Amino acid sequence: MWAVDEAIDRDVPLQLLYAIESVSNDPDDKATEAASAENAVQEVLARVESTGKPVKLEADIVHRYPVTALVEASRSAALLCVGSAGFVHATQGRLGSTAAAVAASAHCPMAIVPATAGLKRHDAGLILAVVDGSPADNTVLEHSVAEARLRAAPVRVFRMPHAAAVPGRSRDGVQLEHRFTHWRRNLPDLDIQLVPEHDGLLNYLEHLQRAATPVQLVVVDPLRPGPLDVLLAPSGRAALDAAGCTVMVCDRKWWL
């Protein structure tokens, strides 16, 4: 139900998308696929309606490869929301490649929600912005601040260790603090800080978990190689599942 809360907060309809990737030309098989899709959609609609939450629901069933369907849907969406378990089932475990393919081509931000996020969105916890010295850093920061204001959450900015070591690619901490000062002056309620040097993103997520510090979102860019590759690798997925936090991938149009 993570997407339900998002739709309500953003004051937009929630559209359910079911993509049928047909493997047979037999009419009976196609009819079975369509019936199964309809049943699945109706089940989800009933579950959402049973919550009594004031969200406008829409549904669409398409005959298309899932990645293509999702990218096309992102053209008119405010946010593309997918479950990590769904990606695993749809791609025989190849979560990383499929999620990265959608993220790299999506026309809107994309949220990858782990099953451990539970039945509702986390309404407490920080926003973790991950920068790596790429051209998308500004987008990650702007998007993180926007999400923090929407959720009344603090922002912590994590610099990937390799970014600070590559001449010409890193965003110096002094520059970041200068930008933070600008935001704090114009947004006095915003709590934004740079994370002290730490040995790796996954280690930092584990550190937060041990310290019982919840994380709502980890905001990254879709550039490869980059933080998204780290988070979609098996060890990264395990860390996200343990923390129960969602990965939000910025859309490419912000920085192209």
UniProtKB/TrEMBL annotation:
SUPFAM superfamilies reported in the protein's UniProt record: Adenine nucleotide alpha hydrolases-like (SSF52402)
InterPro entries: Rossmann-like_a/b/a_fold, UspA
UniProt xrefs under Pfam families: Usp
Domain UspA: from-to ranges: 2-114
Protein name, per record: Universal stress protein
Naturally occurring in which organism (per UniProt): Mycobacterium branderi
